[in-house]
Amino acid sequence: MTSWNHTPDLPLTVNPLFERPFKPAAVVRWYVGSWLPVSINLGIVVLSFLCVWFLSPNLDDASSPGLWMLGILLRNTVIVTFLAWGLHWWFHSGQKQGLTGKYDPRPFPRSGRMFTGGSQLVDNVTWTLASAVPIWSAFEILIWVSLAQGWAPETTFADTPIWFVLVFLLIPIWESFYFYWIHRVLHSNVLYRFHALHHRNTDVGPWSGLSMHPVEHLLYFGTVLIHFVVPTHPVHVVCHLMYFALTAVITHTGFEGIWVRGRKRIHMGMFHHQMHHRFFECNYGSLEMPWDKFFGTFHDGTDDADNRMRDRLKGRSR
C-alpha cells in the first residue's frame, strides 16, 4: 500500500490457532514468542509484582480508606508518564530513529481546532492524565477494597498454583475478546460521540493510546470487573489494569518498533490497529482472536483488502 511510509510483511495474519490448515508449530511459536525470552507481556507481569510488593497496600490496609488510595493514583501517574514521555521522546520529539519503522508518513503531533488546546500532544496528555489515570486507579482501588472486604473472590499461589500462573496467560486473551466487543459498541450511533475523541488521532503517538472520553475510559477499564466473578490475587488485578493501560501506550507509538543499529530490537506497534485509526471501519479487535474475520471487518493491509472495505462501505451507505 503506497500511502504508508512503512508496512510490516503483508498480508497480516491472525493467531495461527484459528488458521486452517492447523499448524501446531506455528501456534507454539505464536504463544511462546508472546512471552519469551523477553517481551512486553512479561515486562508488565514483572512490573506488576514490583508494584504489589513495594507500591501497594496489603489487604489489611485496603479494608479501610487511607493514603494508600492516593499512593495508587500517584504510582500509576508516574508509570504512564515515564513510559509515554520516554516513547514520545524516542520516536517523535527526539526523532532517534527518524522515519524508520513509522507507519504514517505525516508528522506527529499536529495542531488543529479539533484538539484540546489546539495541539494534538496537549490534547492527548490532558485526557490521559486527567481522565484515564484517575479512572484506571479508581477501578484498581475498587477491587483492592472488594478483595479486602471479601466482596470479590481471592486466591493465592499456595492455594491454586496452576490457576495463579494461568491468569497471567489469559489476560491478553480476555483483552482481545473484551476490547473487540466494547469497541464495536463504541462505534454505534449511541456511543460514537464519545469515541470520536479518540479518533481525533488519525495518526498516533504514545500519548494517543489512552486519550479517550471519560465514558470510554469507564468502559475500557471496566474489563477489571471480571475479578468479581473469577478468583484472583491483587497482583492479577494490578497486572490486568496495567496491561490495558500500558499496552495502549506502547501499541500507539505509530512505529513498528525500536530500531537500533539497523535492526528492530523491540516490537511495539500494531499496523492492524493503525489502519483502524486511518480508516475507522475496520480492524476493531486485535490479531489474538479473529473477531474481525468472523464479522467481515478484517483488513490485512493489502490493496485487495482496501478495495473490499471500500465496496463494503459503499454497499452499506445505499
What does this structure look like?
The protein is an all-alpha fold. The chain has one domain (37-277). 53% of the residues lie in helices and 3% in strands. A two-stranded antiparallel ribbon has the order 1-2. Helix 4 packs across helix 7, helix 4 packs antiparallel against helix 8 (234-251) and helix 5 crosses helix 8 (234-251). The radius of gyration is 20 Å and the shape is globular. 37% of the residues are buried. The mean pLDDT is 95.
SSE arrangement:
Blueprint: H1 24-35, H2 40-54, H3 67-93, H4 120-149, H5 161-186, H6 192-195, H7 214-221, H8 234-251, E1 257-260, E2 263-267, H9 271-279, H10 291-294, H11 303-317
Antiparallel strand pairs: 1-2
Brief overview, please?
This protein is mainly alpha-helical and 318 residues long. The protein is built from eleven helices and two strands, in the order ααααααααββααα.
